[in-house]
TrEMBL record:
The keyword Acyltransferase applies. Belongs to the acetyltransferase family. Keywords: Acyltransferase, Transferase. This is Putative N-acetyltransferase HLS1. Pfam families: Acetyltransf_1. The lineage of its organism: Eukaryota, Viridiplantae, Streptophyta, Embryophyta, Tracheophyta.
Length: 403
């Protein structure tokens, strides 16, 4: 069958001559089933928008003659794959992160008319060559748990194994602002204070990026926000910095950062019936007319909409869930001000703080699937051993640069 179409050439994406043809393939791959709701993505004319903020990235296209028939993207970074205990001067064991060079493969697409020709496999193998040439020790992918074609390609043919099943939690942005608890204060941290807090408290979390400073200082990070009880000695005007704060924290606190995905790509729901559209519009009209009722309304998902992503969610204390809920309310209001349709986060299925994250089940995904592959056998991962065989921890750190 491959001979019938000619030789498949896999090469690096050239934005000067490939952009329009790549967008055409993206549109063909996103044709939803007739009569069913489907989610479409608009990359706003930038095919590498989902990886360009990573420290190292590549996009490949598969070409037959003058026709582009497939593509994929990949990026590489250094992340925490576990932790080890080290004895400090006072003989108290201190957890230290174990880092590894990790590659992420995403956005694999093959034109519907050229499937079952091994093109997807060629793209994956070529990308993995680039990963190895650049010293990556592991490669992972994320896919829907029920996308059997994708799962089978990676697990049966490409040597990946199922690794983690985080949850994607999605909450709509209503037409009214949310009221925040009066006994909670939300502080905005500087990038340097945010970096210090994350490195000192969360650096041993799986997938924590060693270049967290680059993430926090990226123009798409709208801020890092800290929730503390009102009445504690910490306010925006008396903030002493993260080191003194962590040395003497309040009884409960929580932190989150917000990434502006709206500037990268937009989403759109298609295939909705006229009845669904009318019902959704009615909820918005009522919400705007009677905002004091605080009725939940359905945003206009039937035209392109943007979203904000909450990352770096963490905290401590007996009322930490309440603090998280307050931060989510703050993030909702920030998204409303900026015209977004939803607020999204992704957390481990075992994450205790997920109890404080409001979300609609119909919009969320209870089980996203991450598959992982060790790219070689000669790596030294310290006390972690082979990361692909390690049990899941309570938390993961989802890098917003790879959405």
């Amino acid at each position: 069958m491959g001979e019938e179409y000619g030789e498949v050439i896999v090469r690096e994406f050239d934005p000067n001559r490939d952009t329009e043809r790549v967008e055409a393939v993206e549109r063909m791959c996103e044709v939803g089933p007739s009569g069913k709701l489907s989610l479409f993505t608009d990359l706003l004319g930038d095919p590498i928008c989902r990886v360009r903020h990573s420290p190292s990235f590549l996009m490949l296209v598969a070409e037959i003659g003058e026709e582009i028939v497939g593509m994929t993207r990949g990026c590489i970074k250094i992340v925490t794959c576990g932790k080890k205990l080290s004895r400090s001067i006072n003989a108290t064991p201190k957890p230290l992160p174990v880092y590894t060079k990790l590659a992420y493969l995403l956005g694999l697409r093959v034109s519907p008319s050229h499937r079952r020709m091994g093109i997807g496999m060629k793209l994956v193998k070529k990308m993995e060559e680039w990963f190895r040439d650049n010293g990556a020790e592991y490669s992972y992918i994320a896919t829907e748990n029920d996308n059997l074609a994708s799962v089978n390609l990676f697990t049966d043919k490409c040597g990946y194994s199922k690794f983690r099943t985080p949850s994607i939690l999605v909450n709509p942005v209503f037409a009214h602002r949310l009221s925040l608890p009066r006994d909670v204060i939300i502080l905005r941290l500087s990038p340097s204070d945010a970096e210090t807090l994350y490195r000192r408290r969360f650096a041993t979390t799986e997938f924590f990026p060693r270049d967290i400073d680059s993430v926090l200082r990226n123009e798409l990070t709208l801020g890092t926000f800290l929730a503390v009880p009102r009445g504690s000695r910490y306010t925006q005007h008396t903030w002493p910095g993260s080191i003194p704060f962590l040395a003497d924290p309040p009884g409960s606190w929580a932190v989150v950062s917000v990434w502006n995905c709206k500037e990268v790509f937009t989403l759109e729901v298609r295939g909705a019936s006229r009845v669904r559209r009318t019902l959704a519009k009615t909820t918005r009209m009522v919400d705007r007319a009677l905002p004091f009722l605080g009725l939940p309304s359905v945003p206009n998902f039937f035209r392109p909409f943007g979203f904000h992503f909450m990352y770096g969610l963490g905290g401590e204390g007996g009322e930490v869930v309440k603090m998280v809920r307050a931060l989510c309310g703050h993030a909702h209001n920030l998204a409303k001000e900026r015209g977004c349709g939803v607020v999204v986060t992704e957390v481990s299925r075992r994450e205790p703080l997920r109890l404080g994250v409001p979300h609609w089940k119909r919009l969320s995904c209870a089980e996203d699937l991450w598959c992982i592959k060790r790219l070689g056998e000669d790596y030294s991962d310290g006390s972690v051993g082979d990361w692909t065989k390690s049990p899941p921890g309570l938390s993961i750190f989802v890098d917003p640069r790879e959405l």
